[in-house]
Amino acid sequence: MLSDFTPLFIQLLIAIGLSFTLLKAAALIGPKRANTIKLTSYESGMDPIGSARDRYSVKFYLVAMIFIVFDVEVVFLYPWAVTFSEFLDAGVGLGVLSVVFLFVIILAIGLLYDIKKGGLEFD
Amino acid sequence: MDLSQAYASMTGDLANTMSLLIVALAGLALVVFDAFKNRHAATPWIAGLALTAGFVFEVSRIGSAEGMAYYNMLRTGGSAAFVNALVLGSGVLSVILTAPYLKRIGHNIGEAYSMILFATVGMLVLGSANNLVTVFVGLETMSICLYILTGFIRSGPGSTESAFKYFLLGAFSTGFFLYGIALLYGATGTMDISAMRDTVADGGSIVFWAGVAMLLVGFLFKVSAAPFHMWTPDVYQGAPTTITGFMSTASKTAAFASLILILNVALPGERWSEVLAVFAVITMVLGNVIALSQSNIKRMLAYSSIAHAGYILVGLAAGSADGYSGALFYLMVYTIMNIGAFGVIALLEWDKKEGSEQTLDSLAGIGYKKPLLGWTMAVFMFSLAGFPPLGGFLGKWAVFAPAVEAGYVWLAIVGVLTSAVSAYYYLRVLVVFFMKPEDAQSGAAATNFVIPKSSAAVLIFCVVLLFLLGVTTYAIELTGSFF
Predict the structure, then answer these.
(1) CB-based burial label for B189 (10 Å; 0-12, 13-18, 19+)
(2) Closest Cα of chain B to A2: distance in Å?
(3) Rounded Cα gap, residues B153 and B106, in angstroms
(4) How many CA atoms lie within 13 A of B329 on its CB side?
(5) CA B312 – CA B324 distance, rounded (Å)
(6) Euclidean distance between CA atoms B476 and B120, whole angstroms
(7) How far is it, in rounded angstroms, from Cα B481 to Cα B65?
(8) What is the pLDDT of residues B3-58, one digit of tens each?
(9) Distance of CA A111 to the CA centre of its chain
(10) Which end of chain B is more exposed for a tag (fewer CB within 10 A), N or C?
């Protein structure tokens, strides 16, 4: 069974080998003619202003958390939506709909809590 | 599959898992309630009533035959009902103790109660799971809530530190657990615990046993057995004291119940028995010996709780029906005495020190000033040490006797010797409480607090239960009827 994967391993080896070879080759034989413009952070963009170590409000992580929750919700809703017609045919559509409704309500409670606690207020 | 039939079966099972639904819905309701009316006095009441309703439901189901719900995902009735009742009972007592405690230390946070409810939901799922995926879902629901509960007093440095330690180590052990599940699925082709045994009738492959080993690591971490106990002292010390009481009892009960189910149902033969015996010895020796040198009471109780996990492992190592039911009985006794002991410590935190500095010396002579706390603590300490006629004695007998029957005489001897060692540090608490002159600095402050009637009632209730469990055989016969 494991031998079935031999081509895969060979391909992996080639991929890793090729990338390292190219990296090393570029470093060895590539021309190095540095000048001021080439060494800036964004060569064809604007010049960086100020320090990258600025303080910023960590509240964005709350938004990220809520995003993840509702993102995952969609993952659950898709398979449900695809099979829903079968449940309709079986005559239990309303019940299955209410189950998913409950699921969405539970998530909405989390959002409600977050809003009430000021999680989405930026200052 | 006929969908309408499946739907009817699933909705029919809702009535069998009523406690789970009640607690989960109450938890959700509390989140909404807390968002609008933070720190409302009704919050602990809602939590306590929901847990009590679940408790009553599960107690009424203990006598009924074991069954399955949701297509063999959860077990109902019988031992599952007993474990769930234990978890819910522990939750009720903890909520009653937590309400005045949080008020006194000035962190009356409403979210704590919804977190207790959600943690209880996780424990209920874990304690009655019959499928490895369900076990994992329960374990994680429980753990994540406990991480939050450990660290919800954010102003205390010890609290955040312990929560973070708990989270990192817990997540790591979850990785082991999950990998174990994956290997078991790879080896057996099923997630169903009761179907697993048939697939490994030939003794199991190396992949299967590797999976079992990984699963054991995850479980032993959750029950804080050595050598996976490192998190326990820090977490138990840093968490709010009544929450420590809750998580040291209920989470252990649920995790042990799940482990017992897997050992009893899924694993062929007794090949893992010696492994558990070794873990039991390490855990008992390490927990009891290190507890000797602790000056902080919460840390001492944490090491004592490690040692008690070792005693329960002795019952599991026996690998017999008597051993499993003995372990369940021990969990019941352990729950009562530990909740009581942590309840007393919580009441003794009169000066907002949040327990992290609660040393034995600062409690000198408190037994005379607060006789109720002194005498109830005396009962809990004697029971933890295993003195008759208290529940702790009968519990130790219930786990050591099956080990002797199974041929592990040396294991029982180690168990008895280490419990003799434990008597030293348990009784030292009483020496400090009653026989030492009071500390001059804390003298005035120490008497300057009132014991809430609800907390006093819980302590007395625990004491009465310990006496009842020690002299009557009803509970031990009940647990004996499960396997």
Answers:
(1) exposed
(2) 15
(3) 10
(4) 34
(5) 9
(6) 24
(7) 11
(8) 888 888 888 899 999 999 999 999 999 999 998 988 888 999 999 999 999 999 99
(9) 21
(10) N
Phi-psi map region of B156: left, alpha, beta (phi>0 left; psi -120 to 50 alpha)? beta
* A7 in reach of chain B (CB within 8 A): no
Taking alpha carbons only, the member of B446, B414, B206, B408 closest to residue B318 is: B408
Strand partners, B75: B68
The CA-atom distances, in angstroms, between B91 and each of A100, B120, B194, B243, B379 are: 29, 7, 29, 10, 21
Cβ atoms of B395 and B337 closer than 8 Å: no
Its ipTM equals 0.81
Residue contact B35–A112, C-beta within 8 A: yes
Query: At CB < 8 Å, which residues of chain B contact A?
Result: 2-4, 7, 11, 28, 31-32, 34-36
Chain B interface, best mutation among A85, A116, A120, by max B CB count within 10 A: A116
B284-328 confidence digits (pLDDT tens): 999 999 999 998 888 999 999 999 999 999 999 998 889 999 999
Predicted TM-score (pTM) of the model is 0.88
Domain boundaries, chain A: 60-116
Q: Are B390 and B383 in contact (CB under 8 A)?
A: yes
